Amino acid sequence: MSHDLRPDAPTARADRYARLSRHFADLLAAVPEDAWTAPTPCPDWTVRDLVRHVVDSPAMFEQLVGRTLRPHPPVEDDPVAALHAVRDQVLAELRDPAAAEAPFEGHFGPSTFGEAVDRFVCFDLVVHGWDLARATGQDAAIDPADLARLWQDADLFGPSLRSEGVCGPAVEAPADADEQTRLLAHLGRRA
Q1: What's the CA gap between 139 and 90, in Å, rounded?
Q2: Kind plus residue range of the DSSP H or E element containing 110
């Protein structure tokens, strides 16, 4: 039995990943040349480190279903091309029912490749998209439709949320904080 709390159809998952990865790619394409070594809201990560994490993360889920990422340019040489190559592969697999429904047994129980990308990779695309935008002086607004999903996923992750370096300890949000600021504070970020 799957632990995916969302009854989303595989098509909805593919569409969501396409939208979120396109937004991240747009942010990435606008990174100023002198910003690659700039710090991000993730402690000890530069902009390039953050992008490497986003590019490399899908490899874990590929491995869980017996696949690998195809060769792609190194993030150090061409971060935009690296992201596009990984994005194209993941999106093609999400649009292929057999590849998307490939099962695995993970930390949270039985799952599928499509469920894992929807839950974990999409979470990273939004949160680290905010990190990237913030670090490079771009518009860091999160689509309000994504905020509820982020809260739901953060709750589902439980203590694991803070064990992988993605989210630090929660910080206190101002009393009059908006939804995005409250969520980011929960994720260890000051907006």
Answers
A1: 26
A2: strand 109-112
**Encoding tokens for residue 150?**
């982020």
Verdict on whether the full-model pTM lies above 0.85: yes
**Higher-scoring residue by pLDDT: 5, 61:** 61
Q: Does position 13 have pLDDT exceeding 70, yes or no? A: yes
Euclidean distance between CA atoms 58 and 41, whole angstroms: 21
Could you tell me the two tokens for 106? 């993970």
Give the pLDDT band of residue 10 (cuts 50, 70, 90).
Answer: confident
What one-letter code names the amino acid at 40? T
Distance CA 73, CA 84 (A): 10
Long-range contacts of 38-45 (CB under 8 A, 24+ apart): 38/135, 38/136, 39/135, 40/131, 40/132, 40/134, 40/135, 41/130, 41/131, 41/134, 41/135, 41/189, 41/190, 42/128, 42/131, 42/165, 42/166, 43/168
Q: Kindly report the length of the chain.
A: 191
Q: Is residue 164 pLDDT above 70, yes or no?
A: no
CATH class of 10-138: mainly alpha
Structure-token pair, residue 173: 């949000």
